[in-house]
Automatic annotation (TrEMBL):
Organism: Alistipes communis
Record-given protein name: Cthe-2314-like HEPN domain-containing protein
Domain of life: Bacteria
Amino acid sequence: MIRELTYNNRILSEQERVEFCEKSDEYINMFSECIEGICQLATKIQKSENSDYDKITNTLIKIGTFTSYSFCDCIVLTKLFVRATNPYEKSFLRGKLKVQLNESFKKLYGFSKKGYKDSHCAQLETIITMFPGFKSEFDELLSDLEQISKNSWWKNERDAEVHINATKLYKLRHEEINESKIAMETVQLTDLFNRFNHLISEVHRTLLNHMVVRYVKENGIGNAI
């Protein structure tokens, strides 16, 4: 279920900012290592005689790398946003964070039927039927993404930032910043990226277990022991 957006308008204390950044560093280290591991795995995997296995593996690696980058990059920007003390710097980072959220969401799910066809969700949908145990979890994620796509609150600011619209940027740079609102909106999306990471990991683990069991049976390893 999608995380409900609630704003308490709290301003973090200095100690809370330190703790937030420390926790962010833990996530950044963990996911950057995960990205490195996935990329190394991709270089070592050799094409097999099983085309379905190749398709599934390549799809999982591609999506896993993407969601890990998206999650990690959003955490980095959020950390910098929380640490920033200069009003202009904070406003600038808010804009860049929304650009990152927009581009990540567009690649993950898209903003239209056409956009969905080119998305990572559409790619995962082509193989998820081979893993019926994960279908309900995937469908729930799709439902949450569809709900968010109907209210892409970050898109206007993204357009101004990317296209460097001076008039709009001036207004945005002078707009009052609500830390609580920005943090909760960001968490809503990064939480989805993290849920996708978990789903991809579990599907990949299931695939590997299946391949091991199949290899053991085909080679009679169990009977030889």
